[in-house]
Design brief:
By secondary structure, this protein is an alpha+beta fold. The protein has five helices and seven strands; from the N terminus they run ββββαααβαβαβ. Helix 1 runs parallel beside helix 3.
């Protein structure tokens, strides 16, 4: 089996009356992300990258928005379930690289806490396994117009020892 790479992407619209949660961190902002769960696009993109690399489908197969038990659930809980799935299938995480696309708010101050949350959830004790970055789209597209936030992630999995 060796190693495998997976890519994930997620985007949600910004709406009033919801908290903005990214990487399990509540980020102060006038809007939050809509979604059946907490709308955490960073966790969702990482989940899809991990599921894709392990050839286990996508988050919609495992966590359908039609499941009332998942309404409002923390995406960190779902991410921990994805970790269990990939482990059951003989994989371990070698590297994750993720980027959040948002015009506002500025996310740099929150990235260390996001990284810490995701490292803990994915049981990653080694330094440098996960990278999280944030960028704007220079006012282009839905993210640039502050209509939503997106995230993309790439995961490298290796056979578990």
């Amino acid at each position: 089996m060796g190693s495998r790479v997976g890519i994930g992407f997620d985007a949600h619209p910004l709406v009033e009356g919801r908290l903005l949660v990214l990487g399990g961190v509540q980020v102060p902002h006038r809007h939050g992300l809509s979604g059946h769960s907490d709308g955490d696009v960073l966790c969702h993109a990482i989940m899809d990258a991990l599921l894709g690399a392990s050839n286990l489908g996508d988050k919609g197969i495992h966590f359908p928005s039609s499941d009332p038990g998942l309404e409002g659930i923390s995406s960190l809980i779902l991410l921990s379930q994805v970790l269990a799935l990939i482990k059951q299938n003989g994989w371990q995480i070698a590297n994750i690289d993720a980027t959040i696309l948002a015009q506002q708010p500025k996310l740099a101050p929150y990235i260390p806490a996001m990284k810490s949350n995701i490292e803990a959830t994915l049981e990653l004790s080694q330094e440098g396994v996960i990278s999280i970055k944030a960028t704007t789209t220079d006012y282009l597209g839905f993210a640039g117009r502050e209509e939503g936030i997106a995230a993309q992630a790439v995961a490298l999995l290796e056979e578990a020892a």
